[in-house]
Amino acid sequence: MQAQLITYQLKDISQEEYLKQMVEPDAPILAQVKGLISKVWLSDIEKNTFGGFYLWESKTAMEDFMNSDLVKAVVSRPYVKNVSSVDYEVNQKASLITRGIK
């Protein structure tokens, strides 16, 4: 199991338009991505930082996603900048104890 944190900033787009143009249409598409267990959408409006915390079945699933046309389309949007991704192996035994995973 792999955890991933993707963050980005927005440029020249209102919150309302960001929700309408990216979050609302992308959420159902992301829900269908093979190997994705969950995504938690994140936002810090004051720091202009947005993104998601992803939980993947495997590192391969995460890498397939990162090399997909979907990710290429998202990062090429003119209002998305400073994209960053970090990932971590999940300690499943400890995460089960603390209810981080089921």
* Shape annotation: globular
CATH architecture: 2-Layer Sandwich
| Rg computed from alpha carbons, rounded to a whole number of angstroms | 14 Å
What is the number of independent domains? 1
Describe the strand arrangement of the main beta sheet, using strand numbers.
2-3-1-4
Largest sheet: 4 strands, antiparallel
Q: What is the string of helix and strand elements?
A: EHEEHHEH
The CATH class is Alpha Beta
Number of strands: 4
Strand content is: 35-45%
CATH topology: Alpha-Beta Plaits
Question: How far is the first residue's CA from the last residue's CA?
Answer: 12 Å
Structural class: alpha+beta
Name some characteristics of this structure.
Alpha-Beta Plaits, globular, 4 helices, four-stranded antiparallel β-sheet, 102 residues, alpha+beta
Q: What is the strand and helix layout of this fold?
A:
Blueprint: E1 2-10, H1 15-30, E2 36-44, E3 49-56, H2 59-66, H3 69-75, E4 80-89, H4 92-97
Antiparallel strand pairs: 1-3, 1-4, 2-3
